[in-house]
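Aim 2 progress. For Regulator of G-protein signaling 16, the working sequence is reproduced below.
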Amino acid sequence: MCRGLATLPVTCLERAKDLKTRLGILLHKPELGHRIGTSSKLQLGSRWRDSSQEVLEWRESFDQLLKSKSGVTAFHTFLKTEFSEENLDFWLACEDFKKTRSKTKLASKANRIFEEFVQSEAPREVNIDHETREITRKNLSGATSACFNVAQAKTRTLMEKDSYPRFLKSASYQDMTKQA
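Predicted structure tokens for this construct:
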């Protein structure tokens, strides 16, 4: 840590981190109409009104959040603050994997996803039980678009029951709803 930051009180550092998170969410929302370097103000137009309605819909269900590109971005940014973004990254990788049509690509993608997210001690290991991990490992031998379904469903349930309610209560989401 640099000397200047070390002298600041912890509360200032926490507040700065919170602001960074909130700004990160806004910077990843292209529909706000803000382009870096063009203006210091957010340009609000009809797209913002559409987006604000979308923000309010996120609290209706976890599915509504996942259907929205900006919702996924905001949720991902929130998960980063909790150091649990690997759950959403895994879910998104599985969704992309299901769209793969080539058998060759299917097998290589399946192995990459398994090594990155599912196997024990994976770099971005998701929180699934041993039985689910074993089922998924066995499914790799005949990789189909459904080989991650059980693990993906467990991860989705974990996010829906655990992270999603915290996201809805988070200061960043509350700020977005106030603006909407």
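The chain has one domain: 48-179. This observation will guide construct design in the next reporting period.
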